[in-house]
Automatic annotation (TrEMBL):
Organism: viral metagenome
The name this protein goes by in its record: Glycosyltransferase
Length: 696
C-alpha cells in the first residue's frame, strides 16, 4: 500500500512521543486508529486511490493495488465508507468502487465504479453506474445494457491479474519435502528469496547446521526492502554469494509444522528485519540459481487429491453437469466456498472447471485469476457472446482451455469428457500445458498493467504517454477502441477479413477526451513501443480499414518494393484531403503496380512507418497549436518521404466515426476521390519532363 510511515509519524505530533517510531508501529496505529480519524499517510499533494470493496472479491482489489504500487501510486483498500470519510475527502483522493453486494453503499460525490458483474445478476447496480464519474467495466458485452450512458465515461478494464509472489514463495517452501532444497529455494521469487532468508533466524534456524565462525550477509544489512530487491535482482543473474562452502543436503524443519497462513504472516512480518548481524556460520549451504525443474513434472500425478474441482454458487444447471462428472471422475464440488478453503482445494486438484451460472454469460475472469495464481489448468465454457467478449477471450486464450457452452439437455457433454480425458490420462501433455500457463501469465499481467495505465490517463489528466506494450514484427496492428464493439464486428465481418485474420492484432487504443488527443496518444504509444522493441518498421491500420480481395498479393509486392528503395519514411495506403501544395518527386513501376513519392500525407487508414520517421513523430506535442494538434496534421507537416500506391489500395468501411461522433463514410470517400484526382494530375505533370523509375 506504499505506506509513507516517516511522513505519517512526523505529520501527527502525538505519535513519536507515544513510541510510534518505526514502520510496523506506524502501520498498526494507522490501521487501528488513524484511518478512522481521517489521518493521511501520504502527502496532501499526492494521489491516493481509496478502493472500496467487499471481502469475497478482495482479490480484485489486492491485484489492482499491486499494479498501482508498480506505478508508484499509493492506494488503500477499505470495506466500509463512513460519513466521516466522505466529508473529509482530500482533493487528491480518488475513490474506486469494486462492489458486488445488494447492501446499499455510501458513495462519495465523485467516484469510479468498477463494474464486475454479469448484467443479469441481482448484484448489477445500474443506478451506481449512472451516478459515477467514470465506469470501468470488465467486459465489453455489458455495454449493451447501458447504452444510454455517454461512451466518453465508459472504459474497458479487464479484471487485474498480478502474480502473488508471496504465494509462490510459500509454494516453493511447501515443495521442499516433495522435491529438494535446491529446487525449492530456486523456485522462490527473487524478491521474496531475501525475505525468506531474513525469516530464518526469526523462526528457527535449520537444525543440524553447526554455527562456528563469523559471517554475516552485508547485502541485506541495514537495507530497505527496495534496496534488497535491487540487490537480489542483480544476484539472481549470478550465484548465491561466492565462497560459501556446500556441506550436504538438508531441509527446513522450521516450516514443516506451520500452517500456510502462518508462513505467509511470518514472511510478511519479517520483511522489515535484516538478516541477523554478525551470525557466525561455517557449514552454510550454497544455493546456486540453477534452472529449476518443473514442480508439476516432479510430483506424481497420483498425489492430486481430486481430478476436478469446481467452485461457485449453486444452481440446477451446474448441479446437473457436475453430477454427471461425479459419476466418471474424482471431483470436489465447492458451492459457496472461498478464501483458504477454496485455495486448498485448488492446490489439491489437477483441473479446475468453470461453468456459467447465467444465460448469455460472459467468461468469469475473476475465477480465472484466482486459479492461475496456483498454475492450474482451467477448462471453461466459452462466452455465449463471443463477438462482444472478444478482448477477454484473447487475454486468456493461451491460459484457459475453452469449450462450447454445454447445452441444457447436456447433449454435447462429450466434448467436455474428451478434453478432460485428454489431460487426465496424458501426464506429459498436462505438464506441457502447465509450463505454457506459467509462461503466458507474464503476458496477462503486462496486459492488465497496460489497461490500468491506459485508463488512468484521463483520471490523472496526464499528457505524456509512454506505456510499454510488447510489439512483434510482421504484424498488422489494428488501432481499435475496445469500448466500440460495433466497429470491431463490422471490421471482422468484412468480406476479405479471411485474408488478414492470421496477420492482425487488435491494439487497444488509448481513450482520452477529446478524441483527437486519444487518437494521437495511441499512435505515439505504438511508435514509442516500435522503437523500444527495435522494430525496423510497423504497420498500423484503423478499425474502419477496408481490405481488397487481392490484399495478400498486393501487400507482398508493397513489402518487396519498400525493401528495394534506398530511402523512405512512410507508406500510405490511401490519402484523404491531399494538400494542393504537395510535391511529387518520383514515379515508380514495380510488378504492375505504380507508386509515387510525395512530401505530404493526410490519412491514417493503413500506413507503414519506417524507423527513419520514429524520432520525429515522437516529438509531437499535445500542446502545440501550429498544426491543429491532430496527429495526422502534425505528420503532414514533417515533410517525410511518403510512398503512395496509385490507385489507392485501401478504403473505409461504413461505420460511425469514434473521433467525430457521426458517420463520415460518404465524406471520406469524397476526400479520397479528390485526392486521387489531384495525385493523378501530379503524375501526368511529372511524366511530361521526367521518366519513371522502373524497379526490377
Amino acid at each position: 500500500m506504499n505506506f509513507d510511515w516517516k511522513y505519517y509519524i512526523n505529520k501527527y505530533e502525538d505519535l513519536i512521543p507515544a513510541g510510534i517510531t518505526n514502520e510496523r508501529r506506524a502501520l498498526a496505529h494507522w490501521n487501528r486508529l488513524g484511518q478512522h480519524k481521517g489521518r493521511r499517510y501520504v502527502r496532501d499533494n499526492e494521489i491516493l486511490f481509496i478502493i472500496i470493496t467487499t471481502e469475497c472479491i478482495k482479490s480484485i482489489a489486492i491485484n489492482l493495488q499491486h499494479i498501482l504500487s508498480k506505478m508508484n501510486i499509493k492506494s488503500i483498500i477499505k470495506y466500509i465508507l463512513s460519513d466521516y470519510d466522505i466529508n473529509n475527502t482530500n482533493e487528491n483522493d480518488k475513490y474506486l468502487i469494486i462492489y458486488n453486494s445488494r447492501v446499499d453503499l455510501k458513495l462519495p460525490n465523485v467516484y469510479i465504479w468498477y463494474q464486475i458483474e454479469q448484467t443479469n445478476s441481482t448484484h448489477f447496480n445500474l443506478s451506481a453506474l449512472q451516478n459515477s464519474t467514470i465506469i470501468w467495466d470488465y467486459s465489453i458485452k455489458n455495454y449493451n445494457s447501458y447504452k444510454e450512458l455517454p461512451l466518453n465515461n465508459i472504459y474497458y478494464m479487464p479484471l487485474p491479474f498480478y502474480q502473488n509472489i508471496t504465494t509462490e514463495a510459500i509454494d516453493a517452501i511447501d515443495a521442499i519435502d516433495a522435491i529438494d532444497a535446491i529446487d525449492a529455494i530456486d523456485a522462490i521469487d527473487a524478491i521474496d528469496a531475501i525475505d525468506a532468508i531474513d525469516a530464518i533466524d526469526a523462526i528457527d534456524f535449520p537444525r543440524g547446521i553447526h554455527i562456528v565462525g563469523p559471517f554475516h550477509f552485508p547485502w541485506v544489512q541495514s537495507r530497505s526492502r527496495s534496496a534488497k530487491i535491487a540487490t537480489i535482482d542483480a544476484i539472481v543473474e549470478n550465484d548465491f554469494p561466492r565462497g560459501i562452502p556446500i556441506v550436504g543436503p538438508f531441509h527446513f524443519p522450521w516450516v514443516q509444522s506451520r500452517s500456510r497462513s502462518a508462513k505467509i504472516a511470518t514472511i510478511d512480518a519479517i520483511v522489515e528485519n535484516d538478516f541477523p548481524r554478525g551470525i557466525p556460520i561455517v557449514d552454510l549451504f550454497h544455493f546456486p540459481w540453477v534452472p529449476s525443474r518443473s514442480r508439476s513434472a516432479t510430483i506424481d500425478s497420483n498425489s492430486y487429491k481430486y481430478d476436478i474441482f469446481f467452485y461457485g454458487a449453486y444452481n440446477c444447471r451446474r448441479s446437473n453437469i457436475l453430477n454427471l462428472l461425479n459419476a466418471k471422475y474424482k471431483i470436489k464440488i465447492g458451492f459457496g466456498i472461498f478464501g483458504d478453503e477454496r485455495d486448498n482445494c485448488i492446490k489439491s486438484s489437477k483441473i479446475i472447471i468453470n461453468l456459467h451460472y447465467y444465460d448469455d454469460a460472459v467468461i468469469e475472469t475473476t475465477r480465472f485469476n484466482e486459479v492461475l495464481q496456483f498454475n492450474k489448468l482451467i477448462i471453461s465454457e466459452k462466452s455465449s457472446s463471443l463477438e462482444y467478449d472478444y478482448y477477454n477471450i484473447n487475454l486468456y486464450k493461451d491460459l484457459v482451455v475453452f469449450i462450447d457452452v454445454i447445452n441444457e439437455d447436456l447433449s454435447n457433454i462429450h466434448q467436455l469428457y474428451a478434453i478432460l480425458d485428454n489431460y487426465l490420462n496424458n501426464q506429459h501433455k498436462y505438464d506441457n500445458k502447465i509450463e505454457l500457463i506459467k509462461k503466458h501469465k507474464n503476458k496477462l499481467m503486462d496486459r492488465c498493467e497496460y489497461f490500468t495505465k491506459r485508463n488512468l490517463l484521463s483520471v490523472l489528466e496526464l499528457t505524456i504517454v509512454k506505456i510499454d506494450y510488447e510489439l512483434k514484427p510482421n504484424i498488422i496492428y489494428c488501432l481499435h477502441l475496445p469500448e466500440t464493439p460495433d466497429r470491431y464486428n463490422v471490421f471482422i465481418n468484412q468480406p476479405n477479413y479471411y485474408n488478414i485474420v492470421d496477420k492482425i492484432e487488435f491494439y487497444p487504443a488509448i481513450k482520452y477526451h477529446p478524441g483527437w488527443k486519444g487518437c494521437a496518444f495511441s499512435y505515439i504509444n505504438l511508435i514509442y513501443n516500435a522503437q523500444r522493441c527495435n522494430l525496423k518498421q510497423i504497420t498500423i491500420c484503423e478499425d474502419d480499414c477496408c481490405f481488397n480481395k487481392d490484399y495478400n498479393i498486393k501487400y507482398d509486392i508493397i513489402s518487396e518494393f519498400l525493401k528495394k528503395l534506398n530511402e523512405w519514411d512512410l507508406f500510405v495506403g490511401v490519402i484523404a484531403d491531399l494538400p494542393h501544395d504537395t510535391t511529387l518527386s518520383n514515379v515508380y513501376y514495380y510488378k504492375n503496380m505504380t507508386f509515387v513519392e510525395i512530401n505530404k500525407m493526410n490519412s491514417m487508414v493503413f500506413n507503414i512507418y519506417n524507423n527513419t520517421c520514429f524520432d520525429k513523430i515522437l516529438k509531437w506535442d499535445v500542446h502545440s497549436k501550429d498544426t491543429g494538434g491532430t496527429i495526422d496534421a502534425y505528420i503532414k507537416s514533417c515533410n517525410f518521404k511518403v510512398i503512395v500506391p496509385v490507385p489507392f489500395e485501401f478504403s473505409c468501411l461504413n461505420v460511425e466515426s469514434t473521433l467525430w461522433g457521426s458517420n463520415c463514410f460518404d465524406y471520406y470517400n469524397s476526400m479520397f476521390n479528390n485526392s486521387y484526382v489531384l495525385i493523378t494530375t501530379l503524375i501526368k505533370n511529372f511524366l511530361v519532363s521526367n521518366n519513371p523509375t522502373i524497379i526490377y
